[in-house]
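hey so i finaly got around to running the thing on L-aspartate oxidase from Caldimicrobium thiodismutans. pasting the sequence first so u can double check i didnt mess up the copy paste, my clipboard has been acting weird all day
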Amino acid sequence: MEIHKTDFLIIGSGIAGLSLALKLKDLGEVTILTKKRAFDTATALAQGGIACVQSEDNHFDLHIKDTLIAGDGLCKPEVVELVVKSAPERIKELIDWGVEFDRDPKNPQRFHLTLEGGHSRKRILHVGDYTGRAIERVLIERALHSPNILILENHLAVDLLLERNCSSKPCRVVGALVLDLIHSQVKIFVAEVIALCTGGAGKVYLYTSNPDTATGDGIALAYHAGVTIANMEFFQFHPTCLYHPKAKNFLISEALRGEGGILLNPEGKPFMHKYDPVRKELAPRDIVTRAIDMELKQSGGECVYLDITHLPSDYIKKRFPYIYETCLKFGIDITKDPIPVVPAAHYLCGGILTNIWGQTDIPNLFAIGECACTGLHGANRLASNSLLEALVFSHQAYLKIKEIYQDFKDNYNHLPKIKEPEVKEIKEEKIFISHNWDLIRKIMWDLVGIVRSIKMLEFAYKRIIFIKKEIESTWEGIYLDLDLMELKNITTVAELIVRSALSRKESRGTHYLLDFPEKSKEFERDTLIKG
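ok and heres what it spat out for the 3d tokens, dont ask me to read them lol
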């Protein structure tokens, strides 16, 4: 079995992993593992932009207040303050790396800022309507040109290796067991510090805006290593994904509503005034999503519509070129036709519990980005705070790693005795794997979705545990099949979400429970599950 030594091991190639790597490269060798292509990330799909205070009519206190309101009482104020006040410096860093944010056509010295749901001011920097793609391209290019950064595609981390004789806590993580999907072999990667930057878990739901890679791998790895997982019940559903039989996971950015887009019910009538009379379409995502869900259930319709046809045609094409061109491929001219949309699973607000430095329970194991629970988002993420969080916490992690990594220089000597694992091939028909994939995701969508009940959650839990046991007994160990290994991860994540949802007996943020429709006055700040 091959053993590879590196100073820093980063699992994931989105904005969190790449920005951390670009900082750590000056301290030592950095290896980035990604289970598919480096560009196959949620970052590359992000359309809206990055929230950052820039204009004279805006200030930090307003951004902090908007974030706290969206988080519905569960944000950690010190984390919110850190992220918001760090934003200008992190944006400057992106610009220095080569990201070119759109400028105001009337004043090119300033950025073009847009408005999104939950924001009281225009503060979203963007690159057209493909901000994430532009950022990902710049970061990957810089990483590829760095002699101290190695990116290995088609490498799936399947287990974290803890030091031998780890009877006292906290222990340390000394490496990872990795499946090389191209050469069909297991490798060991040893590192002083490991960072989980694996993104979200939207594929646990039947309908999601997430890429196919979003199977909660980092959360499953951390949980099985004994790390604390927090607030998994708070899964944010984006109100507007394109509704079309051939359009897979295509998000219709919040920025359209920020530019004046109006939501129409299946009868073609506006409805948001009934649910949030003041903010209407610009209410936080949890409110807009539940409103759409209610309208669809009342009408029996399959989708609602987002209408921006009242805006000038040329402006729409220039401001939203990616959305315009994509919708046109499906026969929808957004300058003339309302866009059919439905909610979809979008962002996990909970995840691997970290401190303000991105550290987990294990001192040399970090978690950054959507797989982490830092306390920024609380019960509901404010739009365009996610890319910002990844940038800020990759910097925080860098500062802490720079301080401590010398303490873990002898990780190789702490490797546990590892019997070379048997890597198996699927002998059964793969229909059994795809069936369980579909079953888990349908259970989660039908019973653990936008609106929940205790009865629905309990039924979902029984079904998921049954499927989990079936998977463990039928396909124990490591397999060459990526779908099967990801199935194991989404089953773990599904279980964690349902357990967390059952333990929170109130409705708050993205967690709406029919049995307890109000907020509790004696609520738990964090729902914790120890691995």
